[in-house]
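Incident log, support desk, overnight shift.

02:14 A customer reports that sequence design results differ from what the structure should imply. Their input is reproduced verbatim below. On-call engineer (initials T.W.) acknowledged and began investigating.
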């Protein structure tokens, strides 16, 4: 989890994540407007605003390619303390954009006849490796490349020694142990669920089949044929000199990531110049030995959750009135990346940032591709020193909702806040009673008694203000009261509603039964009891939300629709 989420059932995630664009097509701007927004002056003004005014990055680079050729516009520096200006040769961590290269390697190996898309992945792993299966169906290479393998986003045995470099100490032995013991919770190939684990396993299998390590095989088969000499995992001294520092959202330097075991998921470092070479080949502006593999890779294979977005091998394909936009994004602790192109218009865009800013870079990339609106920067907030004795009077547990607490504590000089089921995040004082987060746009306001002791805290997020009362030391928080109207359902009626429902890519509502109680849990959030109002409707008491189920001919639910915040969000049953 990246930060607070309360009063909503939608989670926020971080790390090697792809942003799948909204399924609704953006407005298509006239040709003259497109030319204006793609001009060097307009792009530079946009970057200057994002870096200098919004303070969302230390340095940013945009690459654009069309029939006239490639060009690069940059603004800012490679390090918050100065350093060389960023440009087309500056190396950035590209995070999950690495998955595009892993899947291109897969497509090339298919073209060479070395593997088939429907090969079980276990056939291309060291002897003795165990990979889970379900209902007699094995996980195949195409399942991994399309995020439909049934494997989770990350392995559960990934105990991070250093949260700032979370993948560094995860070993092949740990991966093997996880795969050996993991039980798939849905059928292979049935449902899209974004998985860094799956992409990393794919890279490992392809490298083993090709007889080398991932980086060596990728360089020989993909990077060298494309002329991408500045794209690598292990950097040479000259590349290291061009490698930007990464920065957190508050513009502090953060360590570069090391991803030894799941390399195929997000380990590459690259430049705007190099990524434009990839896009040039994808658009057909240059001829490469990978032309056939690229064509194979770009075929849409499976739906990427709800809506019209499809997932190809690695890429996400988004239909628009001007043609299909092919895209992938990436994020690490200190970098954001975006790559997209449209083969119909011949336009390609690369956006790289050396900061994990709240606004990211996706909106810039989509704005340049389609004319869609840019995000608005959050209000600039300035942290002030706060005496430990003052903060310690706020330390405690606050009941934000039935079953949900806000824990406030101090770790040395750091002040931390933590919601039930989420990780602790640092909070920063604006005054003795007001605090803000830097990882998400959220703030806290405390009320205090005459001695300065906290009595309530209010979380301000997503336009909502949620107030929690402080619990007395050792007190047990009250259980959420049931709603006034609760229907009594039979065991069979309750069982008909249980299952997993895909609300969004990587976000699942799991409904379970215990005795005569019904419970629901959203990916990454605590489990809460829900209460039936009828055989097809349940309500939450911890948040103002309800769900309506659609039953199939066999009487079992085939989907649910989540009603919350004025929205109706459909979620089909996931096997």
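02:41 Re-run completed on a clean worker. Output:
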């Amino acid at each position: 989890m990246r930060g607070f989420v309360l009063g909503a059932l939608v989670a926020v995630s971080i790390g090697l994540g792809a942003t799948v664009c909204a399924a609704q097509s953006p407005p298509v701007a006239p040709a003259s407007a497109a030319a204006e927004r793609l001009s060097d002056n307009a792009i530079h003004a946009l970057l200057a605003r994002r870096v200098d005014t919004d303070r969302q990055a230390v340095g940013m680079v945009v690459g654009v390619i069309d029939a006239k050729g490639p060009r690069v516009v940059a603004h800012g520096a490679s390090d918050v303390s100065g350093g060389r200006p960023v440009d087309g040769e500056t190396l950035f961590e590209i995070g999950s954009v690495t998955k595009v290269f892993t899947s291109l390697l897969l497509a090339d190996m298919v073209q060479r006849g070395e593997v088939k898309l429907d090969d079980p992945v276990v056939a291309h792993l060291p002897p003795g490796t165990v990979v889970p299966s379900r209902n007699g169906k094995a996980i195949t290479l195409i399942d991994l490349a399309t995020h439909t393998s049934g494997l989770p986003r990350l392995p559960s045995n990934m105990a991070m020694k250093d949260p700032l470099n979370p993948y560094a100490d995860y070993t092949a032995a740990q991966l093997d142990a996880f795969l050996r013991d993991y039980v798939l919770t849905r059928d292979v190939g049935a449902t899209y669920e974004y998985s860094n684990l799956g992409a990393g396993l794919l890279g490992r299998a392809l490298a083993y089949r090709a007889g080398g390590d991932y980086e060596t095989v990728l360089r020989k088969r993909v990077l060298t044929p494309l002329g991408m000499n500045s794209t690598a995992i292990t950097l040479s001294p000259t590349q290291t000199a061009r490698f930007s520092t990464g920065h957190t959202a508050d513009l502090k330097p953060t360590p570069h990531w090391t991803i030894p075991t799941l390399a195929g998921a997000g380990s590459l470092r690259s430049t705007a110049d190099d990524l434009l070479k990839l896009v040039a080949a994808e658009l057909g502006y240059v001829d490469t030995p990978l032309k056939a593999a690229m064509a194979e890779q770009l075929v849409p294979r499976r739906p990427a959750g709800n809506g019209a977005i499809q997932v190809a091998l690695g890429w996400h394909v988004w239909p628009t009135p001007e043609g299909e936009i092919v895209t992938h994004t990436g994020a690490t602790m200190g970098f954001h990346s975006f790559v997209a192109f449209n083969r119909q218009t011949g336009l390609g865009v690369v956006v790289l940032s050396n900061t994990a800013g709240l606004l990211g870079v996706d909106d810039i990339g989509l704005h340049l591709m389609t004319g869609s609106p840019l995000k608005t920067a959050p209000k600039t907030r300035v942290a002030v020193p706060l005496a430990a004795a003052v903060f310690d009077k706020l330390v405690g547990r606050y009941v934000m909702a039935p079953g949900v607490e806000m824990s406030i504590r101090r770790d040395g000089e750091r002040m931390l806040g933590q919601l039930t089921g989420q990780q602790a995040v640092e909070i920063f004082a604006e005054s003795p009673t007001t605090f803000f987060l830097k990882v998400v746009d959220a703030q806290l306001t405390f009320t205090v008694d005459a001695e300065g002791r906290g009595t309530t805290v209010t979380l301000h997020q997503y336009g909502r203000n949620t107030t929690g009362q402080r619990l007395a030391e050792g007190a047990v928080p009250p259980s959420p009261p049931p709603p006034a109207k609760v229907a009594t359902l039979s065991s069979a009626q309750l069982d008909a509603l249980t299952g997993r429902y895909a609300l969004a890519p990587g976000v699942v509502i799991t409904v379970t039964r215990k005795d005569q109680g019904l419970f629901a849990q959203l990916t990454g959030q605590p489990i809460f009891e829900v209460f039936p109002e009828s055989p097809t409707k349940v309500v939450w008491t911890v948040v103002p939300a309800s769900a309506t189920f659609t039953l199939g001919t066999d009487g079992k639910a085939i989907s649910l629709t989540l009603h919350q915040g004025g929205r109706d969000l459909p979620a089909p049953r996931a096997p």
